[in-house]
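Hey all, sorry for the wall of text incoming. These are the two entities for the joint prediction.
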Amino acid sequence: MTNLSPSDKALVPFVSVDNMMKLVHHIGIEEMLTGLADYIEADFKRWELFDKTPRIASHSAEGVIELMPTSDGEVYGFKYVNGHPKNTRDGLQTVTAFGLLADVGTGYPVLLSEMTVLTALRTAATSAMVARHLAPKGADTMAMIGAGAQSEFQSLAMKAICGVKNIRLYDIDPAASAKAARNLSGMGLSVTVADTREDAMQGAQIITTCTADKQYATILTDNMVGSGVHINAIGGDCPGKTELAPAILHRSDIFVEFPPQTRIEGEIQQLAEDHPVTEMWQVINGTAKGRTRADQITLFDSVGFAIEDFSALRYVRDQIKGTEMYHDLDLLADPDDPRDLFGMVQRAKG
Amino acid sequence: MTNLSPSDKALVPFVSVDNMMKLVHHIGIEEMLTGLADYIEADFKRWELFDKTPRIASHSAEGVIELMPTSDGEVYGFKYVNGHPKNTRDGLQTVTAFGLLADVGTGYPVLLSEMTVLTALRTAATSAMVARHLAPKGADTMAMIGAGAQSEFQSLAMKAICGVKNIRLYDIDPAASAKAARNLSGMGLSVTVADTREDAMQGAQIITTCTADKQYATILTDNMVGSGVHINAIGGDCPGKTELAPAILHRSDIFVEFPPQTRIEGEIQQLAEDHPVTEMWQVINGTAKGRTRADQITLFDSVGFAIEDFSALRYVRDQIKGTEMYHDLDLLADPDDPRDLFGMVQRAKG
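and here's what came out:
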C-alpha cells in the first residue's frame, strides 16, 4: 500500500513571522545581529563565486514587486519583496518579504521563511559589519537620522558589532523619535533625542541616514558633515530616492555592495557613471583598502543586495535545526514512483 | 495592548499538496481540467496585456532552477520550478514546483500553492484547449506516445475537453504503459496498449508525444504521420531536447505559445530562426487562422508558459474560496504601526 503521508524530502521547513520573532528572542537580538553579520561577512569574502543576477522587477503605478535570486553553486536562494509607498495609507506595510533556499544539486527547496523581520535584521547587521571595517577607531556615538522601522535595529547592531554606546536620534516627527527612544530604553544604550539634525550629529563618529522620503531629498547638507566620520546611508535605495547632498559624496570615499545596482538605486545615482567606488567585498577580503586616514570621510552607500538575504536565510536555516521554531510545509509532491503522479492523486481520493 | 495575532492581511492562503489533491477530488478531475482550460483560454484571449518576462534560469551541472513571473496589471504571479533529470536515480522528482499570486496594487501575496500536481493539470488542460481549436472535427482517438507522469492527465483532458473516447498508449517501457492503462481504467475511456509506435498511431486523429529523453530524439519519424492529424508535442521542452523528425515539422503548420521561448526550447529549435509559426493566442482571439483544411497537419509545439501557470493559480484561488482546502500562512509581518516593527518583535517576547 502506498504511504499517503509525504516523505521527509517533500516537506519544506517554514519559518513564520511568529516563529521568526521567537527565534530572535531564543537567540537574543544582539547575538542574532552578530551572527547574521558574521554570515554576511563570510559571504562577502567569497563574493566572486556567487551568481549575481540583477533583481527582476515588475513595476506598476502603485509600486514594484521584485524577485532577487542568487546562488553560491551549492545553495540557491531568492527573496520576494514588494515596495508600495502608498500602502501605509491603508494600514498596510510598504515592504513585505519572504525568501526561499533550495539545494542546487536537486532543485528541492530546503527553507521557506518570512523575511520582513529578517530583512530588517540583515540590513542592520550589514551596516554594522561594514562599519566595523570603515568607522574610525573607538567610535562610540552614532547619529541616527530617521527614527522609522529600521532605526532600533541599526542602533542595536552598531552596539553589538561596533561597540557604539550613544545614540543621538532625530526624526522630523517627534513621535517617531519618542517611539524609538522608548523601544531602546533598558537595552544598554544611552539614547538622546535631538531637536535638529545638527544637534543629532554632535560628537557622532558614525552617521546613519534612514528616512522614508521617496524623492531626491537632502537629509544631510555638506556643512553638517565633519571630517573623519563614517556615513552609513541606508535610505537612498531606489531610483529617484537619495538623502545626501552631492557635495558630501565628492568629499567621501564611497563603498558599495554591487556597483551595477548601486549606480541605479544608491546615493551615487547623483554622480557621473564612472565616479570611482570601492566594492565592499574587496575591502573585506583584503584586496582593496578601507579607511586609510583619520580625517577621511567613508560612505557606505547601501541599497541591499541578494547575497545579504542569502546569508540571512543560511543563518536561519542553521539556527532552527533542533528547535521547534519552524513547521514542515507539504509544498512538494512526492509520489513513490515519479512516473505515477496521477496514481498518487487518485489514491488520495476519499 | 497590541494584538499579537497577525491580521487577516498578513495571512496568505496556502494550498498544500494534500489540499490540492483534495481539491481535485472535490471538484472532480475532469471538471477541474475543463475549468482550468477555460481560465487558460480566457488569459490567452487577453494575451497582449500580460507582462511577458522570459523565465529567469539558474543553471548548474545537475539541472536548472527557474522563476517564471508574469502579471496582468492587477495580479502578479510567479512559479518556482526545477528540472533535475538525475533526481529519479535518488528517488526524487525530476520536477517540483510551487507558485504565488500577489496583488499588484499592494504587493501583498494572496495565494501560495504547490504546483507539481497543478502543473500536470494545467499542461494537460492547455493541450486539450489547444486541440479543441486545432484538431480535426470529430476526433475521437488519441495516440499517447510516452506513458509517464503526464500521460493520464493528457488522456482525461482530451476526453473532457475534446470528446476523445479512445487512447492508444505506447511507451518503450511496458511497465509504464501498464501503469497508465491501470490508472485510466474505469474512467470512461477505451484504452489500448500498443506494441509499437506505429500501432499506437492506428486511427488516431490526435497524436500526443510526451517522452523523457533528454536529447534530440526521433520519437516520431516522417512516415508515421499521416495527413490531417493534430500533433500535440509536449516532451520537447528544453534546449537540446526534441521528439519529432524535422521532416514532420516541414509538413506541418506550427502553433506556439511564446515564440522567443519556443524557438529556444521547442521542436522548432531544429528549424531556421525565421521559420513561420502562428501564436496560439491569435488563433483563440480570431486574429490568426487555425486549421483551414482537412488534410492539414497542425502541430502544437508546447513548452509551457508563465501565463498558463498564472491562469491555473487564478483558478485555484477562485475555487478554494469557502472551502477548507487551504490554510492560512503567517508569512507577512504586520505591525499595527508600520514604523514600529521593532516594537512588534519586542512585544512578542516571552
